[in-house]
Amino acid sequence: MIGKFASALSLLVLVVLLGAHGMAQTTPAGDAAGSTPSANPSPATQTPAAQTPAQPAPSGQEPADEESTSRPKRVRNYKAWNYNVGVGANLDSGTTKTFVRGGGFAATAGVARNANKYLGLRADFIFADLPLRDSALQLAQANGDTSYMLGVTLDPIINFSVTSKYGAYVLFGGGYYHRTGSLSSDTTVPGSPCNSFFIWWGTCFNSSLPLSGKFTDSSQNQFGYNFGGGVTRKMPSGVELYAEYRFTHGSHNGITTDVRPITIGVRW
User: Fold this and answer.
1) Tens-digit pLDDT string for the chain (268 aa)
2) Is residue 28 a part of any domain in this protein?
3) How far is C-alpha 193 from the geometric centre of its chain's CA atoms?
4) Which of 120, 135, 124 is nearest to 169 (CA)?
5) Segments forming the whole domain that contains residue 101
């Protein structure tokens, strides 16, 4: 009896062990794989920083820089401002030539504002010595004199390029002229009838000289015009030598002053 019971118990234990072994071998592969973390995550969950698209540069910034560097700068082929000084002699004309001898000292100084290579606007100061002729001193009954003209002109100027070194220009415009003078050792009697010299001198009133005797000093303010031109020679330093001829005419109350200064100078 005990022997049968032991045999049955042994058989039962053997069945249990075989059943457990079979269940271990039949475990689903998906469950085993699910228990182990995946080595490669899903592409949908990957957000590497390297794949982030680069942000574009601010609109218009880089093209503007390229445009500014590629556009050539305009080089001005002329000077915006020109300055000139010159000295020379005066040649008279008209009624002035009747009483003033030629060859008096003349000087000019000016400045020009150029709009481009060819056109500009020039202002000049002119000094011209007007020494009286001996015949004029005889009419004035004087032994000596001091006489000169001061002028201010404003002229459009046109420049021409003849060659790389030589050029030319012309100018014309209006002017204001002040002629002044003084006679020395004059023996003319006040109240005497005026002659042609004192009419031009500008001290004749009502066809006679003032009784006050204030006819030895002259002061004339006149408006008029001027025109002229010159030639230039450019030096290696950039300074230009020039020779210039001008004709100036002023008038007031029928009294005229005509001066033709010829000057040589420099402009820069």
Assistant:
1) 445 444 545 554 454 455 555 544 544 444 444 444 444 444 444 444 445 455 555 555 555 555 555 666 666 778 999 999 999 999 989 999 999 999 999 999 999 999 999 999 999 999 999 999 999 999 999 999 999 999 999 999 999 999 999 999 999 999 999 999 999 999 999 999 999 999 999 999 889 999 988 899 999 999 999 999 999 999 999 899 999 999 999 999 999 999 999 999 999 9
2) no
3) 57
4) 120
5) 81-267
The CATH number of the domain holding residue 201 is 2.40.160.20
Q: How far apart are CA 258 and CA 97, in angstroms?
A: 8
Rounded CA separation 230/210 (Å): 44
Tally of CB atoms within 10 A around 37? 6
Measured between its terminal Cα atoms, the distance across the chain in Å is 146
Count the neighbouring beta carbons within 10 Å of the beta carbon of residue 217.
13
Residue 11 inside a domain? The answer is no
**Could you give the count of Cα atoms lying within 13 Å of 214 in the half-sphere of its Cβ?**
3
Burial 61-76 (b: 16+ CB within 10 A, else e): eeeeeeeeeeeeeeee
Residue 183, judged by CB atoms within 10 A of its CB (0-12, 13-18, 19+), counts as buried
Domain total of the chain: 1
- Residue 84 CA, chain-centre distance (Å), reads 17
In a domain, 3, yes or no: no
CB 86 within 8 A of CB 124: no
Instruction: Provide the H-helix boundaries in 141-249.
Output: 196-201
